[in-house]
Amino acid sequence: SQDAAHDLETLSKHKVTHILNVAYGVQNAFVNDFIYKTIPILDIPETDITSYFPECFEFIEKAKNQDGVVLVHCNAGVSRAAAIVIGFLMNSERLNFASAYSLVKNARPAVCPNPGFMEQLHKYE
C-alpha cells in the first residue's frame, strides 16, 4: 500500500531496494534511497492490466537479478499491485491463476483485484 511505501522503517526492516509504484497520483517518498519505477494504472475493470505486465515484470526481474527486494504498491495494496504480483508469479514461476492467487492471498489477506483484473488474470493463464 502507499502507507508501506511511505514508511522508511518498514521498508528498511524488509530490506526493500526497489519500489514499483503502480498507483495513480501517489508520489515516490524516498527517491534517494530506493530504485523506483512508476507506472500509473487506473483501478477500473476496463483497464487492460496485462498490457502493463512486460514493463512491470522487467523491473521486478532486473531487481531480482541484482539480489534486490521489490515492493509493488498501489494505493491500498488490494487490486492493482496484487494483480501485478499474481501475473508476475504466473509468468515467472509458471503457476496457474489459482496457485498464484493463493500465494498472494496468504501473504496479504486483504488482496481483492477488481473483477476486470480477475477476468484478465484467468485469461492470462
UniProtKB/TrEMBL annotation:
Molecular function terms from GO: JUN kinase phosphatase activity; protein serine/threonine phosphatase activity; protein tyrosine phosphatase activity
Keywords: Acetylation, Hydrolase, Protein phosphatase
Domain Tyrosine-protein phosphatase: 1-125
Reaction(s) the record says it catalyses: O-phospho-L-tyrosyl-[protein] + H2O = L-tyrosyl-[protein] + phosphate; O-phospho-L-seryl-[protein] + H2O = L-seryl-[protein] + phosphate; O-phospho-L-threonyl-[protein] + H2O = L-threonyl-[protein] + phosphate
InterPro entries (UniProt xref): Dual-sp_phosphatase_cat-dom, Prot-tyrosine_phosphatase-like, Tyr_Pase_cat, Tyr_Pase_dom, TYR_PHOSPHATASE_DUAL_dom
Any single GO CC term annotated in Swiss-Prot or TrEMBL for this entry: cytoplasm
Primary enzyme class: hydrolase
CDD domains hit by this protein: DSP_DUSP19 (cd14523)
EC number: 3.1.3.16, 3.1.3.48
All residue ranges annotated as the Tyrosine specific protein phosphatases domain in the record: 57-111
Annotated SMART domains: DSPc (SM00195), PTPc_motif (SM00404)
SUPFAM superfamilies assigned: (Phosphotyrosine protein) phosphatases II
Family: Belongs to the protein-tyrosine phosphatase family. Non-receptor class dual specificity subfamily.
Functional summary from the UniProt entry: Has a dual specificity toward Ser/Thr and Tyr-containing proteins.
PANTHER family found in the cross-reference section: DUAL SPECIFICITY PROTEIN PHOSPHATASE 19
Name the UniProt record assigns to this protein: Dual specificity protein phosphatase 19
The organism of origin for this protein: Asarcornis scutulata
Gene name of the record: Dusp19
